[in-house]
Amino acid sequence: MPSLSYREKTLYASLLAELLLYGTFLVLHGQGTLNQVAGIIAAIILAQVAVQGVIAALTRNRTTDERDKLIELRGYRTGYVTLAFLMVLGLGMLWFHAAIGHLNLDSRRIGLHFLNVFFGMLVISDITKTIAQIVSYRRAL
Amino acid sequence: MPSIRNQIKELRAARNLTQQELADQVGVTRQTVIAMELDKYSPSLETAFKVARALGVPLEQCFQYEPRGKR
Asked: Which of A75, A109, A116, B19 is spaced 20 to 30 Å from B33 by Cα?
């Protein structure tokens, strides 16, 4: 990928890792145990570290500049707005289900369910952040 | 589109500098030089001064401010 900067390469790698592992997470959603979900979270972190390490080793020019920082900030802003929106949506749904009596807090799987939902929110906002950064790079900013 | 335009491409070509060579002198990525040449990115004042210095011209010869709607 000769026309991509170091930051762009890491972004594409991050997106790929997020999509692959979140796909696995979605398959396990609802049928996985707490340990499996925790394993996926750990796998995402380890895969990210490994991929970033490989890219750093293969890229000679690892210069980052003010434009990279600006694009990174834009990405974080997009990710934050997405996370805030999902949190409000999630809280609204929680309130709605509680109001109509569908929320069973005594269920044994309620902890796993909440973990899935909050982890999903984090991953979606992270993917949104990464995509926003890639779009900014492709538009030149 | 930023309201700051520049002559980086013309000045660079006149000095037989590649985008990578200019980027190395200024301390930015080649992609940032490309973005500046396409008028898609307005650099910080510090980077603008570095670019002008690398090209050996005064800042105002390299960058021009054109308020929106006056092009």
From this structure: A75
